[in-house]
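Whiteboard transcription, Tuesday session. T.W. wrote the structure tokens on the left side:
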């Protein structure tokens, strides 16, 4: 309790409390993540259990009893009779899982390469940063599509659906590590010339220990900001890939897959199949992005 009280009285918490945008964004992100985490408990139906579906409930309008069965659904149903509200909760689980894991993978890879490039220098730094510069010349979504296509091509056919989510995570992560590496390299170049690093060298600490125990804790502030903003971009990248049909498989649909399905019924009058997943994706990405913007300002010493 003492630690919690100390944190609540800190400048960081005070800045958070004084920012309505940060508070609202945090509440929205927390609610959506909890809703996704506890989807099996919150969702009225399991939309991907064929035994629970009734085709007669197909194309039910939101909050309107179905003309054949009399059943009513909060956000309506799709062409298969699946409750849209339930599909959004389950689809959001996939989107958040892919986004979080992709950012974690990109962060670990980028921090590792950035520390090595900044601390070791020489040809090692040149090779790592030239690869990063080349990758930056291509849009991240195209890099992710290329990596996803290559990885899916080498995966045996019988395992493609099972491995599709993990391949998607690797594809998005490999397309997003450059930002972490560049920031960590720049911070490492500054930190490695300071007295505490030189003292660690003098007492015989190995380079790996110096990078992990001395330099890394001092370069994490900008990394956390990038990770928060990258989460919104990773969620959008996953939705884009799934919308294009090269992301999550139909057996594990994400928000992007639901939007792609709903787009096919938009002009036939079933607008709710597209609208509600799209609004959910928009709110989630916007809230995470606004939270990242606040975190960037809160951790920037020049703005204090």
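and on the right, the sequence the group agreed on:
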């Amino acid at each position: 309790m003492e630690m919690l009280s100390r944190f609540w009285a800190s400048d960081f918490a005070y800045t958070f409390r004084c920012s309505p945008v940060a508070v609202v964004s945090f509440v929205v992100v927390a609610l959506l993540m909890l809703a996704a985490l506890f989807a099996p408990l919150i969702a009225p139906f399991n939309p991907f259990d064929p035994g629970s579906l009734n085709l007669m409930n197909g194309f039910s309008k939101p909050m309107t009893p179905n003309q054949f069965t009399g059943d009513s659904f909060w956000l309506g149903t799709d062409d298969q009779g699946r409750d849209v509200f339930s599909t959004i909760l389950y689809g959001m689980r996939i989107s958040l899982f892919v986004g979080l894991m992709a950012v974690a993978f990109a962060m670990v890879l980028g921090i590792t390469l950035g520390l090595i490039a900044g601390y070791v220098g020489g040809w090692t730094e040149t090779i790592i940063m030239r690869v990063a510069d080349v990758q930056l010349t291509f849009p991240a979504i195209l890099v992710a599509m290329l990596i996803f296509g290559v990885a899916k091509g080498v995966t045996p056919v019988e395992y493609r659906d099972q491995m599709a989510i993990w391949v998607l995570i690797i594809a998005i992560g490999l397309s997003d590590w450059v930002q972490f590496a560049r920031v960590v390299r720049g911070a490492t170049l500054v930190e490695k010339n300071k007295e505490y690093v030189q003292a660690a060298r003098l007492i015989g600490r190995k380079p790996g220990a110096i990078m992990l125990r001395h330099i890394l804790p001092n370069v994490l502030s900008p990394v956390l900001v990038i990770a928060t903003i990258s989460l919104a971009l990773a969620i959008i990248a996953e939705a884009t890939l799934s919308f294009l049909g090269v992301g999550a498989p139909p057996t594990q649909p994400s928000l992007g897959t639901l939007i792609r399905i709903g787009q096919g019924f938009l002009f036939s009058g079933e607008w709710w199949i597209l609208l509600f997943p799209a609004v959910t994706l928009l709110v989630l990405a916007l809230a995470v992005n606004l939270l990242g913007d606040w975190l960037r300002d809160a951790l920037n010493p020049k703005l204090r």
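Someone added at the bottom: The mean pLDDT is 86.
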